[in-house]
Design the sequence.
């Protein structure tokens, strides 16, 4: 089946979410037309710049998705809408498979039906699990239901893409942290950096899960990337799809720089100007000692590389946390106690 490019608007599902709001801004900055579809289960309309059409709907609402594709002459979809809590996916695997895979199947069905020619899919480092290599062709052994929903989504897209000629790019983000502006901050995640910043704000202690891992300082190592860099990678991907340079491609999107938990605590102390004491807890089952992207493919094929540093990431996350605390203090002066 041959698809016809009919328009230049891009539909961003989950565009009112943390990463989506950064992507929307970057696309607009690149003079691309954008429409957002989000059920606002975790998204916030206030994250969107004025003038962006926001369709409040579930991706599984095929009638609304079809109408949106037609009405806005959509030539491509950036599919970010998903459930993303790794721990939550163990509690509710069925909900995660429905939330992440049923949505994708419904979206693909409508896209194929409407001959929408391009798709960019948000995947994750969680598809690799614990491995020796984090290059795109490395074995995938996801250690959580969340990671498995994303890997199954990748397979589904490749199968539908091959059968229907849908041009697609799968982007595997690593640990996304920081914010392009305080109002774009991640409010739904329970990842390490927000926990360290909360511990600082509350004058508490951080917990380091194991210091006996086979890493340089014994704590786990991860690869952090700023959402504005993720957004720039989307612009590069969209341009390459529109230029016909991509057809069925998978890219890691990250800095390719390992940061240990102890390194991150030091970065938090630099950003906040406050010491952050820590205690050593039990290692967590299934936690890979080290997960650092090989970002060579996206650099070589799309000319993209991350520009923001670890201090940019932590400093922007702290600015967002501090702004949130100021607002909370103004609203509830007697309830919000912090040491800052
Ligand atoms: N944040 C990370 O570190 C990270 C890392 C790797 C991959 N990802 C992936 O990136 C994508 C975006 O993540 P995020 O951090 O911005 O999450 P987020 O929760 O902030 O954003 C997801 C958005 O999708 C919306 N949504 C969820 N289910 C929907 C549905 N069925 N229909 C319509 N809207 C729906 C939510 O309201 C929210 O606005 C996800 O696919 C996630 O799996 C995130």
Sequence:
């Amino acid at each position: 089946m041959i698809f016809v490019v009919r328009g230049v608007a891009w539909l961003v599902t989950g565009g009112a979410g943390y990463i989506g709001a950064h992507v929307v801004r970057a696309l607009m900055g690149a003079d691309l037309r954008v429409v957002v579809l989000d059920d606002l289960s975790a998204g916030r309309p206030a994250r969107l710049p004025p003038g962006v059409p926001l369709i409040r709907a579930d991706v599984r609402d095929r009638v609304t998705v079809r109408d949106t594709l037609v009405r806005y002459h959509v030539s491509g979809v950036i599919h970010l809408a998903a459930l993303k809590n790794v721990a939550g996916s163990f509690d509710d695997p069925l909900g995660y498979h429905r939330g992440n895979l049923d949505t994708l199947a419904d979206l693909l069905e409508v896209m194929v039906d409407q001959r929408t020619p391009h798709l960019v899919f948000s995947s994750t480092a969680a598809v690799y699990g614990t491995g020796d290599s984090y290059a795109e062709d490395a074995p995938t052994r996801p250690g959580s239901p969340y990671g498995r929903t994303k890997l199954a989504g990748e397979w589904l897209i490749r199968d539908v893409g091959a059968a229907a000629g849908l041009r697609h790019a799968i982007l595997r983000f690593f640990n996304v942290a920081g914010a392009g502006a305080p109002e774009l901050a991640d409010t739904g995640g329970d990842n390490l950096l927000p926990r360290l910043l909360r511990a600082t704000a509350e004058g508490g202690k951080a917990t380091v899960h194991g210091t006996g891992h086979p890493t340089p300082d014994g704590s786990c190592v991860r690869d952090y990337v700023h959402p504005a860099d993720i957004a720039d990678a989307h612009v590069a991907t969209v341009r390459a799809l529109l230029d016909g340079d991509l057809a069925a491609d998978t890219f890691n999107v990250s800095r390719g720089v390992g940061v240990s938990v102890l390194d991150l605590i030091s970065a938090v102390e630099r950003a906040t100007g406050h010491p952050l004491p820590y205690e050593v807890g039990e290692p967590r089952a299934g936690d890979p000692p080290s997960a650092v992207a090989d970002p060579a493919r996206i650099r070589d094929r799309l000319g993209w590389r991350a520009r923001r540093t670890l201090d940019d990431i932590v400093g922007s996350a702290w600015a967002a946390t501090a702004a949130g605390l100021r607002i909370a203090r103004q609203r509830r002066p007697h309830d919000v106690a912090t040491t800052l």
User: Anything to note?
Assistant: The chain has a mean pLDDT of 93.
